[in-house]
Design a protein that fits this description.
The complex is a heterodimer of chains A (261) and B (228). Chain A is an alpha/beta fold and 261 residues long. Chain A has nine helices and ten strands. In chain A, strands 6-7-8-3-9-10 form a six-stranded mixed β-sheet, with helices on both faces. Chain A has a four-stranded antiparallel β-sheet with strand order 2-1-4-5, with helices on one face. The termini of chain A are far apart. Classes of the chains: A alpha/beta (261), B mainly alpha (228). At the A-B interface, helix 2, strand 6 and helix 3 of A face helix 5 and helix 6 of B. The structure holds adenosine-5'-triphosphate (ATP) and magnesium ion. The site of adenosine-5'-triphosphate has 11 residues of chain A, from strand 2 and helix 1. Adenosine-5'-triphosphate binds next to strand 2 and helix 1 of chain A.
Chain lengths: 261, 228
């Protein structure tokens, strides 16, 4: 069974149709790269998966369970949406770290707030806190930030911030981790360290959806590639198919801009 | 000089009493205007257009006219025009009227500061909290609030210091605050008349109080400097 299925996702802002009948599925431990020109709807798609936008049409399933169905009437209550969105993690282009917290606190905060909802929280407070802290420290160490845990975001470089943001998303153990152009806000010399971390996650069989303009990286890390244009999926296949032998004229045009430039 | 030394205890006692009124008006205004300003800022940010338009118009009128006129209208309008002197007579009635005028006026100024503070926190902060499964309440208290406070402390400090000095406007409806008390010795009070120095001496009260406030607010600002 696929870990993620998206069927016939449609999203409009006012009269502008931004996503037009988007369908794809993803197996566990697969990495999906989404490429496409600016304004083609890549960010909107990730935002729909993370419940930041509500599609007007379509169904989203995780492990066979319907987490979103536009046809379902009646609004879901906040608690239900919160539970469902935890299947997904999202790493933003601009990090969106919480500036008043240290790197370690950024990674721990959401987990601690969730832990408070456990029935045995009061009794095991200290123990739970220590567990969460140890886990967060391990995650940051894995990200190569062992000596940066007590720093505030403004004391970190862009590449370090993005790695904290990745650790923060991983702390909640999402089934699927989404990245929206994780290196676009970075100086070129800092993109490598972030891509290396994502590469490492792929090696650990993390299921990921990665929107990126780094074509070489997309080709290298992905098991599946989607090329989007104007709200449609124009082409979809393995990296070899999409990059090596694109069938569609629009894909060829798009890729040629990268190979030449 | 000798005369002044003789008059000093009398004057100080009088000015102290006046300054207590000044302080009371200052504190009551702060306590009322800080929360009321938040409500007004929510009104002016409302997605319900008629409400935000109405709120913005009220704020524009209040900020666009002198506080002194507002004081006079609020104090005299009910009695003279409506024939219903709701404020009652005496010092307590004047204080009530002054407090209402000050609270409303300052709430309008504060609301604009809050609005700027709230809108300056990037929407990405809220979104990051949401995708991490936090509730809106948790996001407000754990993520956005402190960032808002950091941004509003400097402009609020300015307004608060202005408020200290603005309390003297209440003299226009004869509220017996510190300047009123100082001026009394020009006209004649407690056996002292024609003395202008008590009036000048009131400045010391303001200077000391504003000095203390500046230090306290500066500390608060410094406390929040650990993040950006
Ligand atoms: N909140 C919104 N309201 C109105 N239009 C929007 C909104 N968000 C996105 N759009 C529009 O939807 C279209 C797709 O935007 P989206 O951000 O998904 O593109 P993208 O593929 O991520 O582009 P980029 O590569 O520049 O990040 C654009 O035309 C954009 O203007
Ligand atoms: Mg985008």
């Amino acid at each position: 069974m696929p870990i993620l299925e998206a069927e016939h996702i449609c999203k409009s802002f006012g009269n502008t149709e931004v996503l037009k009948d988007i369908s794809f599925s993803l197996e566990k431990s697969e990495v999906l790269s989404i490429i496409g020109s600016s304004g083609s709807g890549k960010t909107t798609l990730l935002r729909c998966l993370n419940f930041l936008e509500r599609p007007q049409g379509g169904v989203i399933r995780v492990n066979g369970e319907t987490v979103f169905d536009a046809a379902e009437t009646g609004t879901k209550n906040d608690a239900e949406i919160r539970k469902r969105r935890l299947h997904f993690g999202l790493v933003f282009q601009s990090f969106n770290l919480f500036p008043q917290y240290t790197a370690l606190q950024n990674v721990m905060l959401a987990k601690e707030l969730l832990a408070k909802e456990q029935p045995d929280y009061k009794a095991r407070k200290k123990e739970i806190h220590d567990e969460i802290e140890a886990e967060a420290e391990q995650l940051l160490t894995d990200m190569g930030l062992a000596d940066r845990m007590q720093n505030y975001p403004h004391q970190l470089s862009g590449g370090q911030c993005q790695r904290v943001a990745i650790a923060r998303a991983l702390a909640l153990r999402p089934d699927i981790l989404c990245f929206d152009e994780p290196t676009s806000a970075l100086d070129p010399e800092l993109t490598g360290e972030v891509l290396k971390v994502i590469r490492g996650l792929a090696d650990q069989k993390m299921t990921m959806v990665i929107v990126t303009h780094e074509m070489a990286f997309a080709r290298d890390v992905a098991s599946q590639v989607i090329f989007m244009d104007d709200g449609y999926i124009v082409e979809q296949g393995t990296p070899e198919q999409v990059f090596g032998a694109p069938k569609e004229e629009r894909t060829r045009q798009f890729l040629s801009r990268y190979t030449q430039g | 000089m000798n005369l002044i030394m003789q008059q000093l205890p009398i004057v100080i006692r009088s000015l102290n009493a006046g300054f207590v009124q000044t302080l009371k008006l200052f504190l009551v205004t702060l306590i009322g205007a800080v929360p009321l300003g938040l409500i007004i800022s929510f009104g002016s940010m409302s997605r319900f257009k008629p409400l935000s338009a109405f709120t913005k118009t009220v704020v524009w009128i209040v900020r666009g006219t002198p506080l002194m006129i507002q004081l006079l209208i609020i104090y005299y309008f009910p009695g003279l025009v409506l024939g219903n002197a709701i404020w009652g007579g005496g010092e307590s009635g004047r204080f009530m009227a002054a407090a209402v005028a000050f609270i409303f006026n300052y709430a309008c100024y504060f609301s604009e500061i809050y609005r700027g503070g709230i809108q300056s926190v990037p929407v990405g902060q809220q979104e990051a909290g949401l995708v991490l499964g936090m509730t809106r309440t948790q996001i407000f208290f754990r993520v956005t609030l402190l960032q808002m406070i950091k941004r509003i402390v400097p402009p609020m400090s300015n307004e608060i210091i202005t408020l200290v000095k603005d309390t003297s406007l209440a003299r226009i409806i004869a509220l017996q605050e510190v300047i009123w008390a100082g001026q009394a010795f020009m006209k004649g009070s407690q056996g002292i008349s024609g003395a202008i120095w008590p009036l000048f001496f009131t400045a010391v009260y303001y200077l000391v109080f504003i000095g203390i406030l500046t230090i306290v607010l500066g500390r608060l600002e410094q406390k929040l400097e650990y993040f950006q």
